[in-house]
Amino acid sequence: MLRQLPAGVATLAGPDLRYAFVNDRMRELVGEGQLGQRVADHPGALPTVLLDVLPRIFSAGEHYLAKALACGPHHCYDLSVQPYHDEQGQIAGLLLLAVDVSEQESSRQRAHELLLATRHLDARLRVLTETAPLITYTTDAAGKVTYVSPQWYRFTGQPPTADLTAIWPLLIHPDDRLRVLYEAEAGRRAGAGWNFEYRLRRYDGMYRWMLSRSLPEVHPPDAPVSWHGALTEVHQERELSEARRRGEAELRFLADSIPELVWTASAEGLVDYYNHYTHEYTGLTEAELGPTGWVGLLQADEQAAAARRWVQSVASGEEFEGEYRMRRHDGVYRWHTIRARQLNAENGPRWFGTCSDIEEQYRLRQVLQTQYDELSRAHHNLDTFVYAASHDLRQPTNNLRGLFEELRRSVTFTDSEQELMLKMVDSALVQLDTTLIDLATTVRTQRQQQDPVEVLDLALVLEEILLGLRPEIMQRGARVDVQVSEAPSLRYSRANVRSVVHNLVSNALKFSHPIRPPHIVLRSFATAEGHLALEVRDNGLGMHVENAAHPIFQLFSRQHTHVDGTGVGLYLVQRIVSSQGGHVEVASTLGEGTTFTVYWTVPNG
C-alpha cells in the first residue's frame, strides 16, 4: 500500500536516520540505492534546512510539517515528518511523507502575480480617473451607484458619506431630471450605453451643462451587470453653440431685411444660402436658383466670363468683383455690382457675396461720361482756338509794330505830348505781344502735362534751366545756390519741371530788390512723409500773400505793376503742380523776399 501511494514515503531508522524504506515516488526525490545509508550522507534533493531539523525531531519526538518546500530547481513538496515507535514504545525512527505540490504552487504564484498586476492596474486606473478633468462613475443593473471619482464630491460639494444613489437625481436640474432617469433606465434595460447632456447643480448652486457617456461591462453570454461612465462639463461649449446659433439667426434676419441680393457659398464656390430678397428679386426658389444661381441670372454673353472669374477667385482665394447685367423677375436685365470675399473660419473657408443693383448709377455714369467727353472736346477746341488765335494775332501785332516804327521815323508831330503818346502806344503793342506769347505758352504747357514721367537728375535739370537764364542772371548780378544733396533725383515729367522752375527763378530775377543784388536758393529735400519738395527762396521785393484783391495764382493777377509782366507765370506753376496731385506753398515778407515751396507728387505709371 505504501508503494502505491501517490506520495513519496520513506522511513528513517535509528538515531543515525538511515533509509529503511523508500517507495518509488520518494526515489524521485532522494535517488536510487539509498537503503541502509544515512540521510545526511545521501539527501538527494531534500533541502538542507530539513536535514538540519531531522535529528531534533527524532530527539523531541514531535511532528513537523513544511509547506511548499523547494526541493531542487523545479519542484515543491509538502513534507510531513513524524516519529514512529517500536513494540516497547520507544522512538525507532522517522516517517517521511512528501506530496508534490509544484503545479499548485506554480498556479498559486501565478495567481499572486496576477493579483499584484491587477492591483497595480487598478491603482493606475484610479490615478488616471481621479486626475482627469472629468467625473467617472460605475452603476449596477439596478441603477445603484457603486463608485464615483473624487471629482464628483469637489464639483457638487457633497460629503463623502452622502448616499450617491439617492442624492444624484436631486442634483439634476428639474427640467432635465425625468429625461435623464428615463434614458439611463432604458439603457440599462436594453443592456446598452447612453450619451446625453443635462444640467447638474454645482457646489455654488449654479447649474452647469454636463455630457454623460456610459457603456456596459460585457461578459458574454451573461447580461451586463455594471455600467462605467464619465461626466464631462460642456457648459462653455454649450453656451458658445447657443450664442453661435443666435448669431446665425440674427445674421440671417439681418440679411433677409436688406434690400440687396445676399448669398453665401462653400469653399468650392457652390452657393448654399440666398437671402429672402434674392427670391423676391429673381422670382425663383432656392431649388430653382441652385448652387450657381447668380451666374445663371446673367446675360448669356456674360455668363462664361463671369464663371471663369469666379472659378479663378475660388481657386486663389482672391476677392471677386465685377459689373454684370442680371435678370429681374420680370425679365428685365439691370446692371449689378457682384462682390464676394472669402472668410477663413475654424470649420473651413466660406464665401460671402452680394449683388447690388446699380442700374441708376450706371446710367448716371454714362450721362456724366458723355458730358465729360463733350466738355473735354470743348476744352480741347477752346485750347486750340486760343493757341491759334494767339498765334494768328501775333502777325497783325508785328505788322502794327512795323507800321508804328515807320510812322515814328517818317512823320513829325507838332503835339507837345507826342513823346508820351508814342511811348504809351509802344508799351501797349509790347504788352499785347507778350500777352499773346504767354497765352500760347499756357496752352502749350497744359498739353505738356501728359508728357512721359522719368527719373530726373535734379542737378543737371537745374543747371540747364540756369544756363538758359544766364543773360538775366549776369545782367542783374545775381547769385544762385543749388542744394540738391538731400533729394538728388525726382520722378516727374522733364518739361513740367523745367516750366515750373523756369517761371519761379525768372520771377525771382524780375522782382528783385533795387538796392541789393538778387540771391536765389534752390533746395531739394524730402518731407517727414517721404514726399519730395523743392524750395525756391529769394531776397526780392516780396508780396502780400493774403491779398484778396490780387490772388497770387490767379491768371493775369499782378501785385507789382511797375515791373513788366502779364501775371501768367505763377498761374502756370500752380496749374502744372496741382494737376499732378501736388501743391505750392508761399511765404513772403514785403521788402525782404519770398519763398515758394513746391511739393511734388509722383504720378502713377
UniProtKB/TrEMBL annotation:
Keyword Ribosomal protein: no
SMART domains per record: HATPase_c, PAC, PAS
All residue ranges annotated as the PAC domain in the record: 59-113, 320-370
Keywords, alphabetical: Kinase, Phosphoprotein, Transferase
EC number: 2.7.13.3
Reaction equation(s) it catalyzes: ATP + protein L-histidine = ADP + protein N-phospho-L-histidine
Signal sequence range: none
One matching Pfam family: PAS_3
PANTHER family: PAC DOMAIN-CONTAINING PROTEIN, PHYTOCHROME-LIKE PROTEIN CPH1
Protein name: histidine kinase
Species assigned in the record: Hymenobacter yonginensis
